[in-house]
Write a structure and sequence with these properties.
Blueprint lengths: L13 E3 L9 E3 L14 H28 L2 E8 L5 H15 L4 E8 L4 H7 L5 E5 L8 H9 L21 E6 L16 E7 L6 H4 L1 H6 L2 E5 L11 H11 L4 E4 L8 H11 L15 H24 L1
Parallel strand pairs: 3-6, 3-7, 4-5, 4-6, 7-8, 8-9
Antiparallel strand pairs: 1-2
């Protein structure tokens, strides 16, 4: 159970709407000051525990951030629900970057409750990967990432060396694939440059509003699996509108890791994120011509699918 994330549930709820289910009653357990309900614990105590735990985590996250910078590493925290296509996207991204920037150091920290399946898939691309199994934990935290980074290619073996050594390494890109969960990872700083939220079109366009903390905390939202748009009911425009309602500055890309559609924009975004070959600034809401074409193509495919469905009736 994750106390500060509220996974334990229970406690008193605020009732909204009618008095019963038939009248549309809603139980809101996150309406109090702590925004979470823990059985047997007051809101004040929950707030104190959360502040203590997150404070300790954030101190390590700051150390991670300084360590990444000293090594010339750009770290990105990939967050999503299970099955969004994070690992498939990572494998495709690594292969593309290996061809595009052969000298770029790539590495992955994989987070899951159990198994090393995803790390094995990453290693098959030739990139080093450390698997972090969290057990009952629902997210990675900064100390986990610190230890995992210590064991990656630039730091072979346990991280017992002095931090006074020369950090003369080639620039690198570190992908942290968090545990599949749209709730808990939102509040945990790992020392990353940015969170990247991945949402597949098979999940439903309302996710940004259902899980606002995650999309508010993310710099970029990737709409993945757009090749499936003709086969699912997913309102691309509404999803984008909801994401920007939660986070007006969020950047949005649409792609298919399977077909490669839209991958060029993602690779370009990564170049900007690590500051390579780019010294100009893009407004967060600016949409590149290629991204606009991809978005319009996706919306056209959705409209065509809707027309076909109407004709079949």
């Amino acid at each position: 159970m994750c106390v500060v994330c509220g996974c334990s549930g229970g406690g008193a709820a605020q009732v909204q709407g009618g008095a019963d289910a038939a009248q549309g009653a809603e139980l809101h357990f996150g309406a109090g000051a702590a925004r979470v309900s823990v059985p047997g614990m007051s809101a004040q105590r929950a707030i104190k525990i959360e502040a203590d735990i997150l404070g300790a985590n954030n101190a390590v996250a700051a150390q991670n951030r300084a360590h990444f910078a000293a090594h010339g590493v750009t770290a990105l925290n990939l967050v999503s629900s299970p099955g969004s296509g994070k690992t498939t996207l990572l494998c495709a991204t690594i292969k593309a970057l290996q061809a595009r920037h052969p000298s770029l150091q790539l590495a992955v920290i994989e987070g899951d409750q159990q198994t090393s399946f995803d790390a094995q898939r990453i290693r098959a691309t030739g990139a080093p990967a450390i698997q972090v199994n969290t057990g009952k934990g629902c997210h990675l935290d900064a100390p986990m990432v610190a230890e995992a980074f210590a064991r990656l290619h630039a730091h072979a073996g346990p991280h017992e060396h002095s931090h006074e050594h020369d950090h003369d390494h080639a620039p690198g890109l570190l992908f942290i694939e968090n545990v599949g969960n749209l709730v808990c990872p939102a509040m945990w700083d790992l020392g990353e440059l940015a969170k990247v939220a991945i949402l597949s079109v098979t999940e439903g366009e309302d996710k940004p509003l259902k899980y606002p903390d995650m999309f508010e905390a993310s710099r970029l939202m990737i709409l993945n699996k757009i090749d499936l748009l003709p086969h699912v009911q997913f309102d691309v425009a509404r999803c984008i509108e909801l994401a920007r309602r939660v986070n007006p500055r969020i950047e949005i890309l649409q792609l298919s890791a399977t077909t490669g559609q839209g991958m060029e924009d993602w690779l370009h975004w990564l170049d900007h994120a690590r500051g390579a070959e780019h010294h100009h600034h893009h407004a967060p809401e600016a949409e590149s011509p290629a991204a606009r074409v991809q978005r319009l193509q996706a919306e056209l495919a959705q409209a065509q699918a809707a027309l076909q469905a109407q004709g079949a009736r």
